[in-house]
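Budget justification aside, the reviewers requested a transparent look at the raw inputs and outputs of the sequence design task funded under Objective 1. We therefore reproduce one unedited record. The lines immediately below are the structure tokens for a 477-residue chain.
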């Protein structure tokens, strides 16, 4: 009886309920995810808005193709030093301030790049373009790996992979928009100003929403045991743990290599295809199919790993299938009249390759826990950008000028480039990274292990009753 033990009536029930009330998920987490997704999408459109119409931009502003390539490459260069700073900002200062700062930099960059099409920037268009792209590149470091942090600190364990998928895939969605919208707007040189002005609109909207709608970096009550221990390691200590973690290093190098290959593929796609008579519109379509099927694959894969937690199996299979398709692209892209085959290959490239990106970010956090999510996801991103810069420079260096064939659609005024060796190297690197990941990557899921046996999260406005069906208490908003 209760009187013989000295415990007050209902002590066991109260203890059980108290354990359950430690965790709660708030509805406003979806607002934060929406703002971050819009910002990431806008930033990606600004990153690759020049690439699908590189020849037209170069011809109108009297720039070289190499200068236009640098407008994309600057994102990779800037991300290396500023990415480390962004990791510290995200884990130390907070997710909200990182998002707001990124939104303002992104908006300022979008405005600065539009000035060369007005009377203000006619004297030095490349300086304005590069300055605007530089600001957007700094913004990217504050945005690109934030979904992993947001999913970890705002979402319960059974929604983390899905939330990460939505936030991460908003970036390739922006690339899809750029691949479709830029060629559609810039059919003639007078469309350049319209294109640059159009991309300011989502950047401004994201800036407005981030400034007015985001009020806190973390919820008052954590949604899971993992969130309760988020960023438990100090910044420098966390980085030291990461570089000593063999599984994390292998994942970072292999996935970073994949990021580098995808970045180079998207930035150079129009230049590779125009040599064999394919139009900018078709190159934009291939890029759009690449992203669209990647988003579709990420949606399915995100839901799958949320239920099964088969992170390692999913990423290994995805990498292997991606390398097979990359080899096919390297061969078929050097042939004329293969529109259907190229469209199918680009679709499969995105389906197998891009879909594993959010899974890789979740896996980076799992294998490095309790290191902060910003550091775990951010270091993968920084390494990926560094590898992307090297891959893109290597691919462009290996090209040689060839005589202008009658079927070429390249419009930069120079003889087109021969990309055969570069495309074969890209395929070889893809196979190498896949083999290394499959053979050498093995890890326990440390965050899931830490959460095992803890009480479940409480969702939104509901609660989970105790084993004896106690009534749910009122929860604060």
């Amino acid at each position: 009886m209760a009187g013989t033990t000295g415990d007050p009536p209902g002590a066991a029930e109260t203890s059980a309920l108290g354990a359950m009330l430690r965790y709660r998920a708030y509805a406003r987490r979806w607002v934060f995810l929406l703002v971050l997704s819009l910002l990431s999408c806008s930033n990606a459109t600004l990153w690759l808005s020049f690439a699908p119409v590189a020849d037209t931009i170069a011809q109108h502003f009297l720039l070289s193709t190499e200068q236009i390539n640098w407008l994309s490459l600057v994102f990779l260069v800037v991300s290396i030093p500023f990415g480390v700073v962004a990791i510290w900002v995200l884990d130390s200062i907070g997710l909200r301030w990182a998002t707001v700062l990124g939104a303002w930099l992104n908006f300022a960059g979008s405005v600065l790049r539009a000035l060369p099409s007005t009377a203000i920037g006619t004297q030095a268009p490349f300086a304005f373009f590069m300055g605007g792209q530089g600001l957007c590149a700094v913004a990217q470091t504050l945005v690109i790996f934030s979904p992993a942090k947001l999913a970890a600190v705002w979402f319960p364990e059974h929604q983390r992979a899905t939330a990460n998928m939505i936030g991460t895939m908003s970036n390739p969605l922006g690339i899809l928009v750029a691949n479709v919208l830029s060629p559609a707007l810039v059919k003639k040189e007078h469309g350049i100003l319209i294109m640059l002005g159009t991309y300011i609109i989502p950047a401004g909207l994201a800036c407005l929403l981030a400034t007015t709608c985001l009020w806190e970096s973390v919820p008052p009550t954590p949604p899971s045991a993992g969130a309760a221990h988020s960023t438990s390691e100090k910044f420098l200590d966390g980085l030291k743990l990461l570089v000593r973690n063999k599984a994390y290093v292998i994942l970072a190098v292999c996935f970073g290599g994949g990021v580098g290959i995808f970045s180079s593929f998207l930035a150079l796609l129009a230049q590779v295809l125009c040599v064999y008579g394919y139009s900018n519109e078709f190159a934009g379509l291939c890029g759009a199919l690449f992203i669209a099927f990647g988003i579709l694959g990420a949606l399915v894969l995100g839901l799958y790993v949320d239920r099964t937690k088969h992170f390692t199996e999913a990423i290994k299979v995805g990498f292997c299938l991606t390398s097979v398709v990359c080899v096919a692209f390297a061969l078929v892209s050097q042939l004329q009249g293969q529109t259907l085959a190229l469209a199918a290959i680009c679709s499969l490239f995105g389906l197998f390759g891009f879909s594993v990106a959010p899974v890789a970010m979740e896996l980076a956090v799992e294998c490095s826990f309790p290191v902060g999510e910003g550091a775990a996801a951010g270091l993968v991103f920084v390494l990926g950008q560094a590898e992307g810069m090297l891959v893109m420079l290597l691919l462009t260096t290996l090209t040689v000028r060839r005589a202008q064939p009658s079927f070429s659609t390249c419009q930069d005024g120079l003889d087109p480039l021969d990309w055969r060796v570069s495309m074969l190297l890209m395929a070889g690197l893809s196979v190498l990274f896949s083999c290394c990941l499959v053979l050498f990557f093995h890890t326990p899921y440390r965050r899931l292990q830490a959460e095992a046996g803890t009480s479940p999260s409480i969702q939104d406005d509901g609660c989970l009753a105790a084993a004896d069906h106690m009534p749910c208490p009122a929860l604060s908003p």
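The beta strands are 24-25, 400-401, 417-418, 458-459. The first helix runs from residue 2 to 5. Computational costs for records of this kind are itemized in the attached budget.
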